[in-house]
Amino acid sequence: MKKTLIAAAVAGAFSLPALTFAADAEPVSPHTLTGNLTLTTDYRFRGITQTFEKPAIQGGIDYSHSSGIYLGNWNSNINEGAGFPDGNLEMDFYGGYKASFGDFGLDVGAIYYYYPGSDANTAAGTTFVNPKNGQTHNGSVDNKEIYIGGTWKFVSLKYYHSVGDYFSLPDTKGSNYIDLSANYDLGNGWGINGHVGSFRLKDWHAGTDVTDGDYTDYKLGVTKDLKGWLVGLAYVGTNAKGSCDVTNPGFYCFGNKTPLVAGVTKTRDAGDDTVVLSVTKSF
User: Fold this and answer.
1) Which of 51, 71, 218, 239 could cysteine-pair with 95, CB 3.0–4.6 Å?
2) Domain parsing of the chain, residue ranges
3) Residue 52: which of 246, 265, 232 has the closest Cα?
4) Are 162 and 173 in contact (CB under 8 A)?
């Protein structure tokens, strides 16, 4: 009996500090800061290549608060022929609010796309000239959008609406994009993802002809987590009009340089189907 009491006393003595440490533990911070870095064989924005089907290095940083407020920045190299004369860098700045209600989620916010060094003026061609009044967009190419989205388990639906000229194309305020996506965890580090998007370009005219910039894009991919490195392989395609027929070039026929010079500038269908391989590290 005496030995039992001593053992109990010793056990209690060693358990008290643990209880004290638990009581004195600092509360969990409401602030979260994360970063990401990606290497990809092709940067596709809404199904359209931004790097002339060349590799890209991308990275960003995100801040979130337990209240649901978040801010972030994301960056990637781009090719000037995708609509950014003299530019080679994309910088995105965004912020918004997220909330969850059981299996459902809400996301509202705004995003600003900026291309430092780009020059949207008549010296780079006629792309940024308004055919209705001859006015041009001077300065760097940019785009401003607001968005609202909802999620249910592994499915999400998001709507983007431009509040200014869409990537500096005159008279395109109100262009919009709908994104329906799904990401499903298969377990053991494997995942599958799918996406369908619909883009509508608002009232843009090239000279006297109406150029149809509307299209649908899609993606089907698989991912594998390899010790914190997320490897992704995806098939990406669109029905965007990107024919580079010299007699009838499509709206999404991009060159590797701006402006297009017949016989000098290389061109390709920026929305043609492709396979994209990527490696992402979050920290």
Assistant:
1) 71
2) 32-282
3) 265
4) yes
Q: Is the pLDDT of residue 196 over 80?
A: yes
Rg (CA), the chain: 25
Q: Is the pLDDT of residue 249 over 90?
A: no
Q: Give the CA distances from residue 19 to residues 6, 8, 9, 13, 89, in Å, rounded to whole numbers and listed in that order.
A: 20, 16, 15, 11, 54
Q: Hey, is 113 helix, strand or coil? A: strand
> Using an 8 Å Cβ cutoff, are 250 and 259 in contact?
no
Which H or E run includes 57? strand 56-65
Instruction: Answer yes or no: are the C-beta atoms of 55 and 40 closer than 8 Å.
Output: yes
* pLDDT tens readout for residues 16-53: 444 445 556 678 999 999 999 999 999 999 999 999 99
Fold designation for 32-282: Porin (2.40.160)
pLDDT score at 114: 97
Interval 172-196 mean pLDDT: 97
